[in-house]
Amino acid sequence: MDKAREFLAAGNYLWNAGIFIWRTESLLAAFKEHAAGIYDMLAKGMPYYNTSGEQAFIDQAYPETPNISIDYAILEKADNVYTIPTAFGWSDLGTWASLHAEAPKTDHHNALNADPALLFDVHNSLIRAPKNKLVVIKDLNNFIVVDEGDVLLIWPKDQEQEIKAITAQIKAMDLGRLL
Questions:
Q1: I need a labelling partner for 36 at 20 to 30 A (CA). Which of 2, 6, 25, 55 fits?
Q2: 170 and 104 share a domain?
Q3: Helix count (H) and strand count (E) of the chain?
Q4: Domain enclosing residue 65, as ranges
């Protein structure tokens, strides 16, 4: 934490937001040079990419690839990586709460992606349901309500960090196919 404060105070460091722009040829060459094992493993799928067999190949091969970030596998080793300083609004929408924060809101600060919907005294919530599924909710504040067909999630928005543990529990119950 002290090092982060030092960098911030210096004012001459940039933050890697994890947003990358590259040509496919350059990225493949970087994998081949700096992460040959990953390249070789995924190159076996070349006949399947952009075909109906692509997803099956990825489902089979991807879990076998090393668990390493692109930063460590390639970027820290490459000599043709550049940073473009910029300022723009950004959220990676990696959580339901961040999706709520960025989505358009109703008069009661609900992010509503459900039609039709009847909401009575519902505030500051994210509501998502399949199209043409009638959603009727009363007296709800600061919740995540997500209906994905075979899974219904209703969870306090300020406790969403617990969802990861619930996801692990679902997988342990051999219900991962529902996620």
A1: 55
A2: yes
A3: 7, 6
A4: 2-75
